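Everyone, describe these structure tokens:
***
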Amino acid sequence: MYEQFFGLQKNPFVMSPDPGFLFLTVRHREALAGLTYAILGRKGFVVLTGEAGTGKTTLLSTILQSIPASRAHFSFVLNPTLTPAEFLELTLMDFGITEVPSSKAQRLMLLQQFLVDAHKQGKVAVLIIDEAHKLGADVLEEIRLLTNFETSEGKLLQIVLAGQSELSNLLKREDLRQLRQRIAVRLSVQPLSENEVEQYVRHRWLRAGASQQLPFRAEAITRISTWSRGIPRVVNAICDNALLLAYGAGESSVGVSEILEVVADLDLLDGSNGFSRPGSPYSIAAPQRSPSEYLPPQAAGWEQTPLRGVDRDLPAKPRLSLLTRWAVRLGLAPST
């Protein structure tokens, strides 16, 4: 919507996991290399963990694109909240097997034959499970048993479990110790540091084919880093809405006032977006000042009842949503 106004070829802050926008921090680079090594090296089991929104799915999508079809077969399970029978059925279907028998024994024989054939062709069969922290213990046990498909040269099925930090706690359960023992590679990604947030925003801006300079002022970047707590998904949401706000106002740059309007609309002003991990060396400390100190004197449209974390009253005026204010500025809606 604002792409032409800012000289962009496409939206730089889309929320979908686009490998074309992949920004590699040291930890993301290590995770990408580790995934490639574990899959092509037929290590069997690899676990990838990270807070919500830190780029795990983007890394997995990158793996799907970077390993050619001539070298691998992929089955990508995006919704793991299934019964063991449903999980096995979905795995077979995503490997391209259309006629799935109803008998579990026949399904396992069919999968074994598929894996053996792939191995003979010199291909790696890879099962990727996203949101793996939501897997039930019965499905995890089913997954463990799939690792029994092997030859003297290595595992016939490579399994990637990707999930939030809860996955690590889940795998510590005593009844899952056999599964835990089979994990060959453990990888993790972390939120961006303050410097990395600026690099991340600039990286996506350039990847979007920008013909103009980055419109975010230095102080705006600092606020983005603070309120996003280094979570790329939240950075995207803040930047996208801030650009929309600036476009609606006809402004060619984004300052602190736009960022504060956006974080209020996204309900981030209390500094608790629920994504940061306490004590993480990569997380950004919560703001030490009250959010009200960041507000410009001319800020309008706030309720008199203080927002969470705001310790002084603001002008008593019904607060319009970001999209409504944007529509008002474009003349698409009345101002009252």
Remarks:
- The first strand starts at residue 45 and ends at 49.
- Residues 271-318 have pLDDT under 50 and may be disordered.
